Structure formats: structure tokens, C-alpha cells
TrEMBL record:
<feature type="transmembrane region" description="Helical">
    <location>
        <begin position="117"/>
        <end position="135"/>
    </location>
</feature>
<keyword id="KW-0812">Transmembrane</keyword>
<protein>
    <submittedName>
        <fullName>4-hydroxybenzoate polyprenyltransferase, mitochondrial</fullName>
    </submittedName>
</protein>
<keyword id="KW-0472">Membrane</keyword>
<feature type="transmembrane region" description="Helical">
    <location>
        <begin position="60"/>
        <end position="79"/>
    </location>
</feature>
<dbReference type="GO" id="GO:0006744">
    <property type="term" value="P:ubiquinone biosynthetic process"/>
</dbReference>
<feature type="transmembrane region" description="Helical">
    <location>
        <begin position="85"/>
        <end position="105"/>
    </location>
</feature>
<dbReference type="InterPro" id="IPR000537">
    <property type="entry name" value="UbiA_prenyltransferase"/>
</dbReference>
<keyword id="KW-0808">Transferase</keyword>
<dbReference type="GO" id="GO:0016765">
    <property type="term" value="F:transferase activity, transferring alkyl or aryl (other than methyl) groups"/>
</dbReference>
<dbReference type="Pfam" id="PF01040">
    <property type="entry name" value="UbiA"/>
</dbReference>
<dbReference type="GO" id="GO:0005743">
    <property type="term" value="C:mitochondrial inner membrane"/>
</dbReference>
<comment type="similarity">
    <text>Belongs to the UbiA prenyltransferase family.</text>
</comment>
<dbReference type="InterPro" id="IPR039653">
    <property type="entry name" value="Prenyltransferase"/>
</dbReference>
<keyword id="KW-1133">Transmembrane helix</keyword>
Amino acid sequence: MGYAAVSTCFSPAAILPLYLSTIFWTMIYDTIYAHQDKEDDIKIGVKSTALRFGDETKPWLTVFSAGMITNLTIAGIITDQTWPFFLAVAATSCHLGWQISTLQINNRKDCWKKFNSNQWIGAFILSGLFVGTLLKE
């Protein structure tokens, strides 16, 4: 929505991939978070992605990560981002790879650690956008 507010035109081609990337990101961190509460979810009957994906969580997180990275890249290309943005997307991809490969879905502390580490993804993307914008001027 911010892009539409500051640009001179409404560009669904730019907004849609960015929006999709945020949906994929939400699926990633929310599923990791949900693994902390799965025992409670079973007791009270809450249907969560942690319960739905179970032992297949890592493949699902990988698919969501690929969707996020692909859509961020598309959004960057469409909006003429510069190399710092794409470096930030690459750092995000590496971070997601680390999260997924080391995630212990049955360890609450590890799930919290991985969930909480998503703040770095926001920092990577924001930094890439900020530095990239400075280079455009």
C-alpha cells in the first residue's frame, strides 16, 4: 500500500508480487510460531498450520520461502530496484535456508528463536530498499 501511496500510479504488476511475498512470509513465521503451541492447539481443538503440516513442515516452509523470494525478486525488477535490494533478497534467502534447515519443530525454545529471528528479514529488506534508493539519486 505504501508503494501505491507514494507513486504516481497504481501498478498491480508491482503491488501483487510484493503482497504475495508478505503472505508467504507470514505463512513461514506463523507456522514456526504455531509449532510452539501445537500441544495446546490439540487440547482445545484449534486447527493450525503446525498441526496440518506436522512432520512435513520443512518442505512446506521451503515452498513458502521460494514463493516469498521469487515474488520479492519480481517486485524488485518491476520497480527498478538496484543491487542493494537484490543483495538483501539474497541475504533473506540465506536466512530462510538457515531457519528451515536448523528448525527443530518439537523444541519450543528453538521455534521461538527461529520465529524471533524474522526481525532480521525485515531489517535486510528495509536496508536494501534504503541503500538502493540512495543509489538511485
